[in-house]
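Table S7 (text form). Paired inputs.
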Amino acid sequence: MIDWKQVWLVWRKEAREVFRDRRTLMVMFLLPALLYPGLLLLTAEMGQAQQQRLQTLVQTVGIAPALEQDVNLRKAMKNASLTVLVEKKFDPKTMKLWVGPLTPVNGETSAYGISFDNGDGQARHVVSTLRDELDKCAAELRLAALDKAGLAHGILQPLRVMEFGTGGKEKDTRFLAGRALPALMLLMLVVGCGLMAQDCAAGERERGTLETLLCSPAGRLEIVCGKFLMVASMGVMSGLANLASMTLTMSQLKVSAVASGQTEAINFTLPWEALPGLLLATVCTASLVAAAALLLASFARSVTEAGHMLLPLTLAACLPALASSLPGINLEGAMVTLPFINFCLLVQKLLLGDATVSQVIAVCSATLCWTAVLLVLLAKLWSGETLLAPPEAKIFNLKSWANRAWRERLDLDEGLLLIFGAGIIFFQLGTPLQSADLVWGLAVSQWGFLGLGSLLYLRLHRVRLAPALNLVKPKWPLYLICLLIAPTLQIIGGAATSALFGDGGGEASKLIHEAMMAAQGRIGLAGCIFLFAITPAICEELLFRGALLSSMKGRMSVPTIIFVQGLLFGLMHMSISRFPGTFIAGCVFAWLALRTRSIFPGMFLHAVFNSLAVVLTLCPPPNFEAYVKAHEWQLLVASLVIFPFCLWVIDKIEKKEAG
């Protein structure tokens, strides 16, 4: 049980330290409350002043001597308030642009060529102004030609289209605010929570006060809860300050626009009925950001290192804000469960007045679920002794490497470096290779970058392959059980994908199907099974359930290892629509490797799992899809019965073997 009195004491300790640090408070609260609005107002004022300046500024434009008497050009120059200078060629020192004659084509009466410095913004403005006036002259000439020919003006415009926004100018402004405001709020949440997390976690270690705190009457769980609540509360305060500041700034811009006569320029007010939903979503999202920031900062050995580790969190928060602005991205299906992007979509709907209570509840519930997952990982981390481990300075030296003793496994940081490095190399080099030649590119990417790359990495770090890769011969009944698990895993993964994405996974499946069909014409069905099923099973298992999993043993709990394995395995496949299936498969492969203490059952299951997908894609039985759709619930229920039963049998076999 959690002693909330101790949690309150930890929260008060952190609060006192924060409020003593005035510089942090200035960054967290004065920044959104003063600097951002000030910059926004200053930018708007500068924009208006620049427009007025350009209107009053005398712009000199050169024209060729042949156009000196051109009536239309002279008229356009006069209407654009441009000073004319007759010159034979363009001189950027004395003029912004120069207009010369072109040979008319296709019945044109006149044609002009405009020379200007396209690296000069002011010159571009002059070109735009002159073009507008010339277009007006061209329109007048067209109408005059029609009148002369006795034709109706409408002959040049047989179809006329006009747009009418039913929500008025205010809805336009709210739509635009919904694209910018969530990104700013997320950024301020990351800044506020990040600063607090750095001080609460890495700052404690750097100051040497962490050991004193851990020796206090408060338990590890109470310390974690107290620090999390402090980080989250400061993040909420920062986010709400940002929201209030942006709203007041928009109102100030509206007042300024009305005062200058631009009554339709800005018409933004925050809908009061949306305020409860905004507050609730902000609090839940701040909790998620706080948990993520505190978890990342807990791995850092210094405040500087924590700042570097929080950079990916900033990207993870800002990129979904950009994605939420894409057409067709709606708050439905899997988007409700995706962190950060669901917050952005919900804020957009709240500002427009389109959000429902069920959507607010769904987004907040999903966000809190992700927060709970991160808090469990954070509690596991703080419950161990990893926090007390001193920082290690590992500098490569050839002599020390040669004399280094052989080890049984990688360190955790070495394992994580391997998985992220392999992922970067596989994506950056493997993707171009596969685009150039799918068969050879995939083979080189899998065997070279993942399989042999993992073996080479282990050897360079003086790690013995057999214990690090779990190369232990398992009992033969396990292979038979894996044959039963494979189809049930396919069905469960497919059901999870359909539940989250509906038909959203169709495009990814279509691309994979086209790739397999193209490869089948070159290497046949057997070659496709080897390339798309057996090769990934061997290479990916060596990387994930071999080198990486052994580096996690003893440093993480079993549930944490299984979850992290599934998460990284799903992310490695670089597909949102395939993530549910690959996440579940990664968790199962990890559990199998941990329970059997061998890599081979998971490797066999992985190969059978992939082979089923290849065979059903390239040569499915007659009426296979129709049969699956007609019996999908029966197949899912049977799988949900057979799957856990198979895992129970494996657990019994291993317990009997251990006994």
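Next pair, protein 2 of 2.
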Amino acid sequence: MKNAKKIQTFLYSTAGLVAMAVSLIAINVIVRQFLVRVDLTEDRLYTISDGSKKIISELKSPVTLRYYCTRGQNEMPIYLKAHATRIEDLLKEYKLASNGKIKLEKYDPQPDSDAEDAAALDGIDGQRLQSGEKVYLGLAVTSVDQTMSIPFLSPNNERTLEYDITRMIYRVANPAELTIGVMSALPVAGAPAPSRMARQPGQNAWVFVSELRKDHKVREINMDETAIPEDVAILVVVHPKDITDKTLYAIDQFILRGGKLIAFVDPACVVEAQFIQPNMSRPSTPSSTLGKLFDAWGVEFDTTKVLIDMNYPTRIGGQGSTGQLSYAVLTLDNRAMNTDDIISSSLDNIIMAYPGVFSGDAADGLTKTVLIKSSADSQLVDSMKAQLPADKLTREFESDDEEQALAIRLVGKFKTAFPDGAPGDADDTDSSGDQSSTDNAKLNHLTASTNESAVVLIADADLIFDQFWVQKGNFFGQTFLQVFSDNNNFFQNAVEQVSGDSSLISIRSRGVTNRPFLVVKEMQLEAEKKYKQEIGRLEDELSEAQRKVNELQRTKKDQDQQFILSSAQAKELAKFREKQVEVRKKLKELRKQLRRDIDKLENNLKWYNIALMPLVVSIFGIVFAAARKRRMESK
């Protein structure tokens, strides 16, 4: 007892407190040597993925990460400080996972310092705040003589941070560039101004092309090309409108010699009107296909039909229940993705506008895999009909009761779609009758591939257009991309896979996460369907009343009294017009009630989210306090 009192006295003495403080500091220093981070986010956003670890494990040369971050207490805004801390933690994870292959260097670029000079050499830009102070938050990655950098690590791109870092590590360690050809009837690679004196500026490249250029050499290929360059490994074709047989033959021979193809075709390209002026002398539909190539591959693609899907509608031009519902613009979640394929397994938000579908059995020697599909509650309709209002579409909807393929992959040994050789060979002899060029062409003609190749087909060219997957913003003078759908991720995954480099796919797929409230979505659709029949019946009555009015106005006793109705006809006309007014009122009230029901559903969910958790915590606290009080009283 006395010893216990002595120990207690010592602990409460000054010497004891000092000893405890020293012990705690020593324990803290020792523990910090064995850094353990626990990532409790559902997607493990701050833990590097298996794909990153695989790339790190395959590094042949050391890699240095130079992290530039302003450390001053006053310069860096609080939200940027928190973001900078998360970046540093992630970089430490790279270092720990590398077994010494990755070196992390941290710099604080103060004015007129060596660190500021190093930042400038690495292409790291300081950003000026509204206060006028300059802050740095950038990263440079170096291996041997290769360097890549991110001038400013914007908080807006935090979800794609791991992918951006791993991609730089991979590129500096593997500097060989892949050449990708891009062919399109649309100006996807950008277009210069019409002339120096033109007031209209040139068109920028679509963002997917700009993203490709970060990692690969991109070569633009004309739509009338008769041969694909030998150095092109992957050919990307977007909306090949009015493609000629000679260009199809060039693509055919490109695939047979081992090239890979990613093609976006479309029965009704929404964005075409923004770039292609209509030809009044030769009107055409905004559709595209690969014709003879599809025939040779066993692929059927109807350019006159688009798909509407009752399970994947999109609200356009508003939020919640305020937007206009479209069943032809599809927002596809993970139920539509092939979860067994690396291209699509981790994606959960693809937007397609007026897509077509692929059908048919693949030709002999080819294996067909569906990557994206519709629901069975869908229907193929004429492109004009798909533009009808949603309520009219739902009334006339008749499900095909079949899931449709929206994106597919073909793998195997392809056979030529031109067994007789290049189109036009018979006309290629010159005036002297010299057939040498024709003979050479026939000699080089391939009839089948010797090695396996791959083709990825997507039934919507709009999918890759900027407005369907990304928004551009400005942060401290730097343009950043705010990605809101997985459209480009799907395309980039396809590029990585067909090029044989799949390690980056699982990382990129973590970048965009969309978890739609499926139950809420179904409840909203049910609320709309509940009124569908009644609205349809009233619209039919309105149409019938209008038809009667028109008939009465056309019915006259004789030609001389064409503007005079009999008293009976006048009464009938008045009755039907009253009917029109009455039906319109009922329709208006029904639509109001529909909006009220959907708004009520949204408000109830908001209240559940706001009040339910505090209520649960309060009940738990009361029960815990009551139980504790009971235990105290029992003692």
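The radius of gyration is 33 Å.
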